[in-house]
Amino acid sequence: MKNWSGALVDARTPILVGPTGVGKTAVALALAAHLPIEVVSADSRQIYRTLDIATAKATKPERQRVPHHLLDVVSPGERYSAGRFALEAAAAITAVRAAGKLPVVVGGTGLYVRALVDGLFAEPPLDGARREALGQVIGGLPHSELVRWASRLDPGFRGEGGRHRAARAIEIAVLTGQPLSWWQAAASAKGVVLPWYVRLTVPRQVLHQRINARTEAMLANGLLEEIAAALADGAPVEGPGMDGIGVREAVAVLQGRLPRELLVSSVATATRQYAKRQETWFRHQLRGDVLVLDATRSADHVATAIAAAWKESAP
């Protein structure tokens, strides 16, 4: 077996991206039959413990077969930043390489990928009084309004990460006079990996069908029970982990604000909207060569193509 260890920055790292529901997890699992891989998750929702169904994590048997890193990192009430992800993902990548395996970053959170590859900006000083006053204003806005204002103030904002990410985009734009995407583009910080991108894509209609089927499966597998258990265990309703798609709708059902019969359609609609933003981000934000593959084929077929391209591109 070839030893994939080496200097972190100098070694290429496969990064498998695409919209939610496109089949990234299945392809990564299939890739393990071709290459000695371990997965480093780049998903801003799968870092939260106990939210397995809601965030579509790989199952425990799947994780036993193919080790996954950066799942179940924090509780739903804790904040987790892209900067922390970059540090912890870099450590995981180093550890995987040291074990003689190939780390493969898999996920759909563009900000996490950007933090890992490009680095993050050093936040400028923010006026405490103005920040507190702004927080009181935006704290009462619904999620949809936060996303709308964040998108207006920052052309680079793609609606990722729930209300906390949207609130931060608004805060940076209002208090610094420049959008978050501008600060990120001007950053001098250096990324920690040399990316080898693979972007999965399917026709819009196919993606919508997959999202609908996955949403129905989530409910059948116990989505409401999982969220009820998280709340009973002390997860705060306003916690960072509780505003993700699927979670917030389930909370609304449990609190009587959304009829149960509308849960699947509400989650599916929000997921489709998010997937569209992800697709736009990945089409325009990945720099350098990107291997684009049609994921309508079987996961094993796609994995075979990835493995062949990886081996062919080896220096």
Give a description of the structure.
The chain has 315 residues and is of the alpha/beta class. It folds into 2 domains: 12-120 and 189-313, P-loop containing nucleotide triphosphate hydrolases (Rossmann fold, 3-Layer(aba) Sandwich), CATH 3.40.50.300; 128-185, no CATH class. It is built from 13 helices and 6 strands. The protein has a 6-stranded parallel sheet, with helices on both faces. The model is unreliable at 1-9 (pLDDT under 50).
Strand content: 5-15%
Largest sheet: 6 strands, parallel
Shape: globular
In what order do the strands lie side by side in the largest sheet? 3-2-4-1-5-6
Keywords:
315 residues; alpha/beta; Rossmann fold; 2 domains; 50% helix; disordered N terminus
Helix-strand layout with pairing:
Layout: E1 12-17, H1 24-31, E2 37-41, H2 60-65, E3 68-69, H3 82-98, E4 102-106, H4 110-118, H5 128-138, H6 143-153, H7 162-176, H8 180-185, E5 194-201, H9 204-220, H10 223-232, H11 247-254, H12 263-285, E6 290-294, H13 299-313
Parallel strand pairs: 1-4, 1-5, 2-3, 2-4, 5-6
Helix pairs in contact: 1-13, 3-4, 6-7, 9-12, 10-11
